[in-house]
Design the sequence.
């Protein structure tokens, strides 16, 4: 029983954070918002150089062969810097899913390409209808309860669905080439689809933690320097209590997200509840952080010229991605109120439903 | 017997008249946003149409282009206005804020010069009070107006000025007494925006449009006759204007009742897959909009019986801003994955929800933050000691 | 269109408030809580002397022949002083209900007795299973969707159900004499039962307003005199904001309750929604006032020796009386989300469903 | 790989051992409330039973009657303790607060004199810190201990002393330096409660039972040897004790997880007629109890890896107190008309909900109000300036 991350895990996250400060600074996001995003490919290359796309890939595929726990802090950093590229979907969702079907030759061939970042994949799921698409997309991973498809980008007709978050390039597949053969069907497809959603939701929750902490940090700094009525607004109890309340929500959401990592590879009601709980708790923390940030910044927080809005919009976007509030809330309500698995103080870390 | 909550036959006739006119005149296709130049021009034209129908500001006295209507009539008018989905009022700084202020503090010449063109929508007004270092703490403002014969020479930097990007005139507060502090030595001055030494720069909002502007005064000269009231009376007059802003006119309930009805329809569309708790959020939104409407009529009755608006303004501000935020947050939850889609995205079925949500975020912070309103309530209504 | 109360209405409420200060002071409630309540009959007499039981009774029955609007401020005062006796149930609920069935001789005979306070009645309804019983009870008014019964006290076997609010003497009818003849059945009974609930719920809401305002007042006074860290706690922003938030909720609940009075005599979905809205809004205001009062008083508010708990317990009790939260919340949700009647800005004062 | 959230075989064996012992020893019929004299005696007896099984305070070192158990073992013990519905710990002031304080600051004689009898449940301790004018602002306390040779003469009035109505001893803070102010000149003194010059008066709580007591010191004399630490070190020691109070021991998550499970069962009983929004409140209660448990294990891991508890204590205090309040408010809503029924009313099916609700109301205000905790978080965790 140990809830602490290893030094290696923290160092890798720290290294990514340093990289992000370089390639995904507020200035970079401003350029992107002003329609001059020339850096997408360059960012992708830098992420690839650090090997981030291969964290969950097998070493035999050129990956690091690490586990979900090693990835969760990276997803958090991707949220903290509001990374535009879908690192999380490719490295955290698609790769581990495809590792379940390496028997399929095209998958075996693709995995090393995905791990190196040469191939770029977008993932759609019934609960994630709008895929955040990488630069120079090469493949789609699409699924429903019946079947999972791996398709070349050219084989899919797409519709662009611009987001209020200019850092997300959303597309929706409009039609696939007729008669595309599914990667998997039946039980295998059902399980793949469930695990895809588990990882998508959990690593989205981790991003929400990161973006929430970023907004809290920005608000605290602003509250220290902005003066009103002759003293820093951060010395007023109302401001203090807003931000302290965010800190509380964030602290406990963090524990829930980290604990849920152990469930993403599993199936069954207890894992579904743990993942949905994580998604809800992290989204709530990010939502509160955003509203409190506006309270603290006043009209200033409402301005395009202040960094805050990059992270606020990411928080709004993540709330609806990989299962929206209703989906995850109904999931927890049905399982808990229906006692789908034993509840109680001795059950905190149980895995099996 | 009192608490008689039925409209009189006259009031019902009035409602019917407004409804008929709106049906006949409200543009079928919604106007462009008034935060764009083209949209601003369209909204200016709409104000002319309203004025032509004598609907510009029905509560104003007839001699200024009004109908001398009662507050109840005003509420009925607004109900029909929002029910007809009529355009936003680009003229609101004039008709709700400066207009009443001019009537109370203006000279006959000032009234004659400014009110008719305001009524006709010919001149659109902006408000220039806040400064980078003077937001909630307005008395900290620094912009100066230095007397030079019959003119004032203006220097300073105003910010968060609504409508200013495309408006014609701005009513501002300047420090006219050198070395004066806080509330003293301020004057209320009317300034043309297309004028030498006046530079206006739009501030893009998080939705990307310039909802507000900054105004830079670089030795701009205006006649002393543009000063409203006495020199040094600026704070007193500004507080009166703020009273109008916090009064009943600006945030009439109809807007929220229309939004609540839309939310109910959004719920019905999503009910099958929605978190059942959102049903209670939807019902709460309707109840709150209804409560806000009822309390507005209650306040209107009190005012018409000779009362004056005081700290209720703060109660109203908190209530409508929280109701508006909760209502739009509920809508965003209901829309799920579609909530983030930008206006123009194929799957973005109704862009007004995202725009409304973003607008609602500003509610608790503008026109006096809700924190400040709570302090006012605690001190003025409950009599708690100042901090 | 006029939302103001007449001077007469305000004077009558003021007179009752003065009387309450005399007969229902905190000292009187303390005695009652300490089990020495010898004043119930005396209080009843004083209420009767003021003619309060006859406010809604016909002048021909010795009443004042006034309307529900005249009674709502009195119900509010009954809440403000946490009146133990069921003035509201007898004068505000039973009397107007029985006036609908004066064709029944025993009702015609009873009404003058109820108006004068000589007769004392307790009211049970499917949504108000525990009746607050007056001293020297003489009659029961009991109903369900099928039938309404008027019974002599002796004819009903009751079970005492003590409340945490020592000011409420609750009883539940366990059994009635077999074969008692209903006052009314069928459609008449259904309508009577619906209006009974409307008045019970609305006048309970009015009591919640009164008790909420009392708690707010007590908290404000305490916050002015209690010092911590060298200044009155009422000068701290956190305390100010707690109490200001109560004031906001109370202000708007008041408008909702007063407006709903016009609906209690009516039938149909719009009236049900208006009354349920009033019950919910007033109960929420009282609940928030109670929690904020505890916040302001600290451990002191938690003590038997401070007056606060009399009013806090009344607030809890009223929340479940005459339709609990779930009943009224489901009612509004069903009618509003189901658009059972036209919604929108022109509908605020509509009466018909 | 870290974040390994499975119990070791040893930990699983330990859980089984606790479970078996609890099954064998927890009284079948619940004890009387420890706020009554008879109930207090029953709870004292239960402490003796626990001590006999060496379960009194498993985290204490063996020489003081403990098992030197880890924090994780402690959490497992609590899970089984609450799962078995075992009695409240009448001994908690001793084992959680004074015990650790004595181990850190006591002389060998003091440890030998007090710890064993504390461990055995023979001596039950009360806490005597607050005074009528010194609640949240503890440094304002006035009670004095005047040195007279080898004794202190105690004068003053303590209040909100938990367990004091029937306890044997009280650990108090007195002003030992005449004319000293605020945090200076205070000493930490152990006082017998059945003692000349010491008068204890129970304070009835809103549920009618004496949950707390007032203690009046009227020239009570205690030996100087009863002082813990140096004269004037009282504040420093009290802060250490407060640290233990805010630490992990006192509010272990199991209590809330058991309550959440009961709430789920209450929901299932009322689901058919309940506001569907209450389903989400029930699910939230379970999620929050789970989150509190997870975060407690997370903190425990950090502490076992050599970290120390700091401002997390404030985060915990806010989280559990709000979770407890929301959980019980939801239960009260679900019970509807029955919620107000007193224990003993025929239709009062489970009195623990009303009692728990009333207790939960105190959560946000005792052990440092949540306002104060938020100030601490803002200043110590977020680094915002002091007001």
Sequence:
């Amino acid at each position: 029983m140990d809830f602490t991350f290893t030094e290696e895990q923290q160092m890798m996250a720290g290294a990514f954070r340093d990289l992000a400060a370089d390639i995904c600074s507020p200035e970079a996001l401003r350029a992107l918002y002003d329609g001059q995003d020339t850096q997408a490919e360059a960012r992708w290359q830098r992420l690839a150089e650090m090997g981030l796309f291969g964290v969950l890939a097998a070493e035999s595929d050129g990956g690091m062969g690490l586990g979900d726990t090693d990835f969760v802090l990276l997803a958090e950093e991707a949220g903290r810097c509001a990374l535009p590229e879908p690192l999380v979907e490719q490295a955290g969702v698609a790769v581990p899913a495809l590792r379940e079907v390496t028997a399929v030759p095209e998958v075996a061939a693709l995995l090393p390409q995905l791990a190196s970042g040469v191939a770029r994949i977008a993932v759609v799921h019934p609960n994630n209808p709008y895929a955040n698409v990488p630069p120079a997309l090469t493949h789609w991973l699409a699924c429903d309860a019946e079947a999972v498809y791996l398709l070349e980008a050219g084989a899919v007709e797409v519709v662009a669905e611009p987001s209020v978050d200019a850092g997300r390039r959303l597309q929706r597949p409009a039609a696939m080439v007729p008669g595309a053969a599914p990667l998997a069907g039946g039980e295998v497809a059902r399980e793949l689809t469930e695990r895809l959603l588990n990882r998508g939701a959990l690593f989205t929750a981790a991003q929400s933690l990161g973006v929430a902490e970023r907004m809290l940090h920005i608000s605290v700094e602003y509250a220290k320097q902005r003066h009103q009525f002759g003293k820093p607004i951060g010395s007023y109890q109302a401001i203090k209590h807003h931000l302290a309340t965010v800190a509380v929500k964030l602290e406990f959401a963090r524990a829930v997200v980290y604990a849920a990592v152990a469930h993403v590879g599993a199936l069954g009601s207890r894992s579904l509840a743990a993942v949905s709980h994580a998604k809800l708790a992290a989204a709530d923390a990010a939502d509160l952080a955003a509203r409190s940030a506006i309270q603290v910044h006043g009209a200033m927080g409402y301005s395009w010229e202040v960094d805050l809005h990059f992270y606020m919009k990411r928080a709004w976007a993540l709330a609806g991605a990989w299962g929206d509030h209703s989906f995850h809330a109904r999931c927890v309500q049905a399982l808990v109120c229906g006692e789908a698995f034993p509840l109680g103080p001795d059950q905190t870390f149980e895995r099996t439903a | 017997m009192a608490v008689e909550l039925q409209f009189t036959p006259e009031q019902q006739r009035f409602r019917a008249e407004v409804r008929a006119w709106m049906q006949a005149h409200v543009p079928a296709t919604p106007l462009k946003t008034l935060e764009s130049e083209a949209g601003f021009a369209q909204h200016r034209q709409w104000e002319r149409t309203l004025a032509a129908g004598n609907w510009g500001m029905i509560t104003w006295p007839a001699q200024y282009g009004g109908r001398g209507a009662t507050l109840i009539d005003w509420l009925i008018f607004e109900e029909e206005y929002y029910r007809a989905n009529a355009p936003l009022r680009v003229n609101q700084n004039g008709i709700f804020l400066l207009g009443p202020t001019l009537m109370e503090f203006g000279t006959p010449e000032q009234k004659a010069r400014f009110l008719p063109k305001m009524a006709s929508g010919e001149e659109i007004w902006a408000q220039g009070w806040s400064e980078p270092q003077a937001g909630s703490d307005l008395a900290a403002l620094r912009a100066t107006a230095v007397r030079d014969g019959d003119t004032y020479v203006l220097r300073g930097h105003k910010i968060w000025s609504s409508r200013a990007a495309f408006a014609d005139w701005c009513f501002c507060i300047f420090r006219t007494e050198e070395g004066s502090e806080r509330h003293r030595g301020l004057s209320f001055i009317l300034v043309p925006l297309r004028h030498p030494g006046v530079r206006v720069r739009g501030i893009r909002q998080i939705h990307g449009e310039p909802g507000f502007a900054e105004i830079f005064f670089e030795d701009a000269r205006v006649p002393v006759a543009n000063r409203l009231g006495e020199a040094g009376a600026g704070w007193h007059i500004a507080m009166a204007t703020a009273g109008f802003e916090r009064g009943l006119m600006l945030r009439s309930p109809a807007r929220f009742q229309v939004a609540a009805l839309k939310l109910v329809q959004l719920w019905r569309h999503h009910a099958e897959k929605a978190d059942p708790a959102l049903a209670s959020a939807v019902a709460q939104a309707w109840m709150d909009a209804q409560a806000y409407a009822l309390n507005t009529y209650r306040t209107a009755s009190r005012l018409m019986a000779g009362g004056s608006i005081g700290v209720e303004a703060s109660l109203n501000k908190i209530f409508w801003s929280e109701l508006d935020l909760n209502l739009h947050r509920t809508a965003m939850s209901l829309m799920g994955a579609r909530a983030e889609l930008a206006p123009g995205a194929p799957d973005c079925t109704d862009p007004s929800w995202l725009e409304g949500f973003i607008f609602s975020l500003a509610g608790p912070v503008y026109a006096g933050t809700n924190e400040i309103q709570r302090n006012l309530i605690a001190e003025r209504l409950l009599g708690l000691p100042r901090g």
Observations:
- Residues 277-304 of chain B form the longest helix (28 residues).
- The mean pLDDT of chain B is 92.
- Residues 49 and 353 of chain B are 28 Å apart (CA to CA).
- Chain B touches chain C through 63 residues (CB under 8 Å).
